[in-house]
Every structure is written in structure tokens, then in C-alpha cells.
Write a structure and sequence with these properties.
Blueprint: H1 2-14, H2 25-30, E1 37-42, H3 49-62, E2 65-80, E3 86-88, E4 96-103, H4 108-111, H5 114-121, E5 125-128, H6 129-134, E6 142-146, E7 152-161, E8 171-174, H7 175-180, E9 186-193, H8 198-207, E10 214-217, H9 230-237, E11 242-244, E12 250-252, H10 254-260, E13 261-266, E14 270-275, H11 279-291, H12 300-306, E15 332-334, H13 343-351, E16 354-356, E17 367-370, H14 374-381
Parallel strand pairs: 4-8, 5-7
Antiparallel strand pairs: 1-9, 1-10, 2-3, 2-4, 2-6, 2-9, 5-8, 6-7, 11-12, 13-14, 15-17, 16-17
Helix pairs in contact: 3-8, 11-13
């Protein structure tokens, strides 16, 4: 914990020395991020402390703009209206789980409109439309979140914005509020300037020693194996409260689990436990694999002994900020846990609405994750 706090403090102390924030009232809301060239720097999970320092040094040498974006999944205990009447509550020892982004108050005007920036800077919550609907939130309502040392942090809803405008995060707060919630990790650094040229890339390459850092640009091609954000996973497959077990494994809310998680015997795999909405696309992909004579490339033994579908846990392969695994929704499946897949099998799963983890920043070659139900709907109706 001291390590995380120190990282946050170093970033806060260093940023004003090299970030060109224009503070006149005219420029503050005219100079939006879309008017600049941008480099986004990320890696699997959170940025290492060493990488963070190397990015800071690079930005200082370039005399350019830099900020760090934080994110973590935080427990939500309840919501109330402004009079204190409970609107949404949780079971004993259970919490909802929400994805919260943190941003430094000095740069919010670059990324948000005037009203949104004012909400974040004032220490209130900016909430996405889907999240507000899901938890019955209105401006002025109170949200009770679990912060450091399990202390309950009461925050007021200051504004509600489109999910796309919020980058598909469920809530956004400033860094100071984030620290109270225990969010010290940063998931990305953003550099912006009027003319980003090869000197920026040379400087970053010279300073950043970790080889698995990813640099993205405004015109970068998205990874074809993109996945759904939390807000849309909850929208399509349901939201549930969780109870902690050991820091990794969780217990999902019984009513949601009983309604959505089922057992079914699948071609090639045998008895499988998944979300019921997985059956059509999964069975469709497996039957096509059989029809194309590729069935021998899937290992039932590996699936049954070390793979699976429904597994109520957090992501544990790297520092994911407490993110709930898609296996907890029963919409991800690991089949060949050791032997890998031919490219054609990946293509078939893609065509049935699945993302494959093999091309992610931190590759997960065994993993297929449902992101789109439309292929199975259209194929079954044709």
C-alpha cells in the first residue's frame, strides 16, 4: 500500500513541472484533447512504478503535456436519495462492483465539457447513463462506496453523462477522491501536444525499458479482439452482487446465479456450465468446427481438467484493479489450456461473436469471450 501511495504522490508532485495547462477561462474549455496529437501509453494491468517514472522523465525532456488515468473496481454498498431514503441496497456481506476512472483535476477540461469538468473537480461523482439507470441514480443522490480499510465513502452524484463520452467507465472521480477509495494504480499515461513527431517516439523508446508497453495513437487500428466494457456486460448479461471469499474467488448473488447459470452438454466438450445466453453461439461455433473437420484440434481433456466456463473470480493474471473476470458471468470459456488453437478455429469463434485473448496486450491464448449475440441470432434465423 505504501508503494502505491508513493507512486500517486510522485505523479502529483511531478506533473505541474511539465504540463502546460492553460487556465484562462477562454482557453480552458476551447483547448480540448481532440485538437492535439495524442500518444496513449499502457501495459497489461497497471503501469509499473519504473515505467511511470520513465514516462515522467520523457515528458520532462520533451517539455510536453502529460497526465495519468487511474482505474479500479470498487464495491458499492447502497444508494440513497438526497433525503437519505435508500433506493438500492445490498445483501449482508455482499456488494455491487463498479468500474471507476480517476483523473487529475488540473486536466479535466481537456477531456470533458464544462459541466462534467466542474462535477469531477468539485469531488462529486460523474455517472454514466447506463449506470444511473441500473442503480436508480439521479443528480443529488448519494452513493456509498467502499474505500481504504473498508471505510464507507459517501459521494454525491453531480452529473450523468453518455457512456461513450465517459469512455465506457461507469463512474469518474478526481484523483483525490480516488485515493480515498484506494485507487492508486494508473492504467495509462496520455501525452498530448500540437505536433507529435518522431522525437517523441525516440525519447520514449530511449527511456522506457519495459518491452511490453503499448503506444497507441489517434489513428491506431483497434484490436480486432476487443471486449465489452463493464457497463455493457451488465446490460446484456445482468448485474450481480458479490461476496468476497479469498481475494480472488468470489460468490455471486444467488438470485442472479440461479436465473442465469446453467449446465448443458456441449458438442466436443461434454458437460459445460455457462450463462444461458452462451449456448447458441457456443454450440454454433462447435458444430461448425465439427462440420469443417477440425474437431480433433479441441481438447475435451484439457477443458474438463483445467479449463471451463463459469468461474466466479476476479482477474488474477495481472494487476487488474479488482476487475471481475468474464468467467464470473459465465460468458468466457477456456478450452485448450495447453495446446493452443489453429487460426481457423479462432476465425470460427470470431464469426460467432467471440473475442480471442491471444492478441491482447497480455495474451491469454486459451480464452474465448462472448461480446456479440447478433451472429448467433442471424445464423439461427437464416
Amino acid at each position: 500500500m505504501f508503494f502505491a501511495v508513493l507512486t500517486g504522490l510522485l505523479i502529483n508532485l511531478a506533473s505541474p513541472n511539465f504540463t502546460h495547462i492553460e487556465t484562462s477561462s477562454d482557453n480552458l474549455y476551447r483547448n480540448k484533447i481532440e485538437n492535439y496529437d495524442v500518444i496513449t501509453i499502457s501495459q497489461s494491468g497497471s503501469l509499473f512504478y519504473s515505467v511511470t517514472n520513465e514516462i515522467i522523465q520523457s515528458a520532462k525532456n520533451l517539455n510536453t503535456n502529460l497526465t495519468f488515468i487511474g482505474r479500479a473496481n470498487i464495491g458499492l454498498e447502497k444508494t440513497t436519495n438526497s433525503s437519505g431514503e435508500v433506493k438500492v441496497n445490498t445483501l449482508n456481506n455482499y456488494l455491487y462492483n463498479v468500474s471507476i476512472k480517476t483523473i487529475d483535476s488540473s486536466v479535466t477540461s481537456y477531456f470533458y465539457n464544462r459541466n462534467e469538468s466542474a462535477v469531477i473537480n468539485s469531488g462529486r461523482l460523474l455517472v454514466s447513463e447506463l449506470t444511473a439507470e441500473r442503480y436508480s441514480l439521479e443528480v443529488g443522490d448519494k452513493v456509498f462506496l467502499v474505500g481504504l480499510e473498508n471505510k464507507i465513502i459517501e459521494l454525491e452524484v453531480g452529473g450523468i453523462s453518455k457512456d461513450s463520452d465517459m469512455g465506457w467507465f461507469e463512474m469518474v472521480v478526481n484523483k483525490d477522491i480516488g485515493y480515498q477509495l484506494g485507487i492508486f494504480r494508473n492504467i495509462q499515461a496520455i501525452i498530448w501536444d500540437t505536433n507529435i513527431n518522431e522525437n517523441f517516439l525516440i525519447e520514449l523508446h530511449k527511456n522506457i525499458k519495459y518491452s511490453k508497453v503499448k503506444l497507441s495513437f489517434r489513428d491506431s487500428v483497434p484490436n480486432q479482439n476487443w471486449v465489452l466494457p463493464n457497463a455493457l456486460v451488465k446490460e446484456y448479461f445482468g448485474d450481480f452482487q458479490i461476496k468476497e471469499r479469498d481475494g480472488v474467488w468470489i460468490t455471486t448473488e444467488p438470485s442472479w446465479r440461479n436465473k442465469n447459470i446453467q449446465q448443458k452438454r456441449m458438442p466436443l466438450l461434454g458437460l459445460t456450465v455457462c450463462h444461458w445466453l452462451m449456448w447458441a453461439p457456443l454450440e454454433g461455433a462447435l458444430n461448425q468446427i465439427i462440420d469443417e473437420g477440425l474437431g480433433d484440434y479441441l481438447s475435451k481433456e484439457e477443458f474438463q481438467t483445467s479449463g471451463g466456463c463459469y468461474a466466479p473470480r476476479r482477474i488474477s493474471r495481472f494487476d487488474a484493479g479488482g476487475s471481475i473476470s468474464r468467467h464470473a458471468w459465465g460468458i468466457a470459456i477456456d478450452i485448450n489450456t495447453k495446446s493452443g488453437y489453429p487460426q481457423r478455429i479462432v476465425e470460427i469463434f470470431n464469426s460467432w461473436g467471440f473475442a480471442w485473448g491471444g492478441t491482447w496486450t497480455s495474451p491469454d491464448e486459451m480464452h474465448f469471450e462472448l461480446r456479440d449475440l447478433s451472429p448467433s441470432i442471424s445464423k439461427s434465423s437464416s
